[in-house]
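Changelog entry: the DNA repair protein RadA record was regenerated in this release. Current contents:
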Amino acid sequence: MAKVTKPAYACAECGWTTSKWVGRCGECQAWGTVDVAGGGSRTARTSAAPVAAPAVPITEIGVESASATGSGIAELDRVLGGGVVPGAVMLMAGEPGVGKSTLLLEVAARWARAGRRTLYVSGEESAAQVRLRAERTGALHPELFLAAETDLGALLTHIDEVKPSLLIVDSVQTIGSADIEGVPGGVTQVREVATTVIGRAKAEGIATLLVGHVTKDGSVAGPRVLEHLVDVVLQFEGDRTSRLRLLRAVKNRFGPVDEIGCFDLVDHGIVEVPDPTGLFVTRHERPVPGTCITVTMEGRRPLLAEVQALTVDATTPSPRRTSSGLDSSRIAMVLAVLTKHARLPLGKFDVYTASVGGARLHEPAVDLAAALAMYSAISDAPLPAQLVAIGEVGLAGEVRPVSNAAARLREAARIGFTHAIVPAGTDGLDAVRGQLTIVDVPHISAAIAATRR
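Regenerated structure tokens:
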């Protein structure tokens, strides 16, 4: 009797193999990533084949075809490293309702206004729905072609007929192929759709933007191979309660991954925010207790942000500790340091801390501003209005230097701040000492004393 070879199954995320199909990977615990990997013990043999083009010395390869072209949106070009490269495939992911489709429709319109043909393929909305949004945002142009398709074969036909220089697919999880098993959005379908679209984009030099869904933990949905196949992975972030949207590159083969782009989601669409500092700082008519300004780094861009603190008498044996926009574990550490090394009776109070404007401040450089804001709140003494504080607070009460201190202080001086409290031993401050008064402090107690001067 002939022996029947059972198919082998492998995880698309980590490569774990099993002899039978399971819904969850036994190695990385990812759901829906196990699929047929091959035909058992059969060994594949690949022979030599003709090449498409001979190998040449790297010095003889031209780079003109890989030069970036401006998309018309400066904040997007900043994140991409200068613009859109022909044949490059970019994946943009973000939570539902954050504004991905609105941003890409604006990109398509500006690309078309420059006389370049654009094809926008929507798999989630009808053509009429996209047209209504385009009218509201002013994104109508004859060179912008629109199609509502969910079939991969029809998508390729549209590419052949329109011949665009920019292709936008919204989204890759809604496109499916009738020749592949599984439903659209599954591991096999997403891999096939991405591979086919990327192959066509590379062969014809079409810049391509793919929209991707995210899982509940914020990562890109689908197989991890999708992120490996594309050239750029963009993350579009934003709080539903705030209009500010941040675009950052998680992977970029053509530029840096530490740049961010800022956008403002308004009624008539989405607009660029080249100077977003004012969104995170509240201008008070007079100094208010419990507030302190700091400078945080978003990629390479320094942004001023305001930290607020409020202390009230505790009504329960266990005082409350509530944080919004700040790292709660670091705030708890700063509270302990203030209690131990600054002799502040914070154990008798409920302490509330928050950032302004929906900013998420999680880097250690915010520690000193949070400590001074809590000291100001409990003593009911406002800090100087033109003061910024930058530094990491250690468990021994020491104030440690942080990265990019000079760039942070230059931004504070540009906005109009005149005084700064920074950790002792911070390098590279000689060039900015003439722009504002800098006080070096080695300990949290020294920082508190500096605010009383």
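The chain has ten helices and 21 strands.
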